[in-house]
Design brief:
alpha+beta, Immunoglobulin-like, 4-stranded antiparallel sheet, 3 helices, 26% strand, flat
Length: 172
Amino acid sequence: MTDPQPSGPLSQSVERLRREFERWLDAALNQGNRALDVVGLRGADRPWTPAVDLIETPTDVQIDVDLPGIDPVLVEVSLTGNMLNIQGPKRTHIPPPGGTVHVAERMQGPFQRSIPMPAPVIADSVSAELKNGVLQIRLMKSEKARALKIPVHAEPPRVTPQTQAVSAVPAL
């Protein structure tokens, strides 16, 4: 009887490659632009992409951006049309003389993120605050983008000769 799963060194290597490929594919499907950062394919001269949460409420759009260790003075936030742009630098950590970096997983260098707004916003209403490593941006939705509740009125029933004849029949 033959073993359905060979267990030699070649099959172990193939299995490791399959798992790594699945990790890359999962990162690409679930993280979009951040996938290049996750799998280490971003070039050294390309900006990294910070993680964001975008929440739309009935009155505004709220965006939280993870920017730990970033000086707020160096962060640039701009709104061009329907696109919110966030960029800036994160200083590169330089080891002390004679020091050796054994692990370097934190993002460094320039970052950039462009986020399309899910609804029209008022450009003059944007506020941004960097607190505890999270950039919180709030944009008020324009009046035309806000949901308008429209009341539905019922029309009174019409009286027709046929409905009068039915109501004239005495109940048994």
